[in-house]
Amino acid sequence: MKQNDTKPILYSTSVVSLMELAQIENEYVDHLRGYVDELQRKVDYIKQYSQIGKHPELETEQQRTQFVANPLNAFGLVRRAHEDWSKVLDFIKMVENPAQFEEMDRLMAKAPTEEDMNEALRGMAKIHEIYDLEPADIAKGLLDGRQYMAQMPTPDRVLLADYIYNKTDYRRAAQWYKTALQNETADAQREEIRKKYIISRLKGGSSDEVEKYLAELSQSHEESLPTIDKPTSTQLGCRGLYPARTNLSCHYNFETTPFLRLAPIKTETLNLEPLIVLHHDVLYDREVAFVKNVTMHDMTDSIFGSNNNIIISKIKELDVNGTIKIDRRIVDMTGLSLKNSTTIQVMNYGLGGHFREHVDYIGEDWNDDKNEFLASYGNRFATVLFFVSNVTQGGTLVFPRLQIAVRPERGAALVWHNLNNACEPDPLTEHSVCPVIVGSRWVLTKVLFEKVQMFTKPCHKL
Ligand SMILES: O=C(O)CCC(=O)C(=O)O
Ligand SMILES: [Fe+2]
Q1: Which residues surround ligand 2, an ion (CB under 5 A)?
Q2: Residue 6 has pLDDT above 80, yes or no
Q3: Residue 157 shares a structural domain with residue 284
Q4: What is the CATH number of the domain that holds 271?
Q5: Based on the domain organization, do 62 and 89 belong to the same domain?
Q6: How far, in Å, is the centroid of ligand 2 from the Cα of 169?
Q7: Which domain holds residue 375?
Q8: Which part of the chain is the Fe2OG dioxygenase domain (predicted)?
């Protein structure tokens, strides 16, 4: 995990930052409304003049003579020509409220970058792909079976279609172009989108079927294109399709530390080897509030992966002073030593925020200080993950090789051992976070190291 604080802020990577952007858009629109009012006043003034200044169409020479022969008409004509013409023209030429423009320029400096736009596109595409949703449903606010009061306008649909097309996912791109045609659009734009639909269908299909593709365009009903991809294990888990597990056990833990005799922890064992346990109700409301408050601002983008290009969420290290009690609770839950453990990291996921498959132990792709690190601390023995929030839809944590899926549950903590009994990295611990569909996903994580567990959880080297 690396943090990068030299780049401009990305909004798409966390709900917290997206809230900031929504605030900025409100300000922008306020200025725009001010400008529209200003413009309206101007139009009203000009309209008023154009009504007064326009005299009746007079057909004959005599009528025209009579018109200016009337002193009231003559006077008005002279006055308008003398006074109003220049006034109106000056009024038109006057720079429109530069103060408003300055303010809007200032806000423009905070507008999302190209990279941010791409993150947003990537998030939307992930939601579509991982959950295999119909673009027509997404565009109408029907997200994985739940209807929301939001719709995607045509430009949003076309931009997403273009993005997916450039990713060479022609089948899905075609679906999005078709969806874009369901809204009212200008004829020229419609033609452009129809062309893109046909090209996507041809690229994803066969040139012999062009007639069929053209016919699809005239079908008004939304016919979905058949899914051809075989879902990965992660996708199955995200879609809630893992087989039900029958070997789960649940118990109250009274024993790890003396404190638990007073306040036992309700613990569910999800897997034995590697060990994965879920502890319910171990983070208190005031801690949840504390975590959100102290991290609301100055979080940075979290970048993961050997080529450092997968931005998934915003992250911040939690101040140690605020975490003493949480540390104590980890000891109560696990009985493990926290010596040398990482500081607690807080993460808030963004639009379609996800974490692709990875392992938490130090493995092949770890960077150069690997050996030194392993010699001093040993490997990354266990991961402790607190769910700080529920997530309305999506955001499930899945272990694709074990077919275990864990829905975020506010206040619960998931603990798993990344190493097996011989303290060797266990690839079965590979895990991934499904894209968040709707919600603000907050978690706290801490990694415990191997060497200090010598007396609490000794390795059984074979
Ligand atoms: O956000 C999560 O649920 C998992 C985070 C994770 O896998 C990690 O920090 O290594
Ligand atoms: Fe992880």
Answers
A1: 360
A2: no
A3: no
A4: 2.60.120.620
A5: yes
A6: 28
A7: 233-453
A8: 340-450
Last residue of a domain, one of 195, 218, 241: 218
Nearest CA residue ID for atom 2, ligand 1? 433
Condensed to tens digits (0 to 9), the pLDDT of residues 69-83 reads 888 888 888 888 888
Report the 10 Å Cβ neighbour count for 171: 17
Spatial separation of the C-alpha atoms in residues 142 and 137, rounded to whole Å: 5
Task: Give residue 356 CA to ligand 2 midpoint distance, Å.
Answer: 9
Centre of ligand 1 from the C-alpha of residue 432, in Å = 7
Residue with tokens 């030429």: 93
DSSP 351-384: TT--EEEE-SS--TT--TTHHHHHHHH-SEEEEE
Neighbours of 393 (CB within 10 A): 18
Looking at the fold, whether 258 and 363 belong to one and the same domain comes out as: yes
> Is pLDDT at 3 greater than 50 in this prediction?
no
ipTM for the whole complex: 0.99
- Is 46 found in the same domain as 90? yes
Cα of 1 to ligand 1 centre, how many Å? 10
- Positive or negative CA dihedral for 95, 98, 100, 103? positive
Q: Do residues 388 and 442 make contact, with C-beta atoms less than 8 angstroms apart?
A: yes
How many domains is the chain built from? Answer: 3
Q: Is the pLDDT of residue 460 over 80?
A: no
Q: Which of 418, 431, 446, 447 to mutate to test the pocket of ligand 1 (most atoms within 8 A of CB)?
A: 431
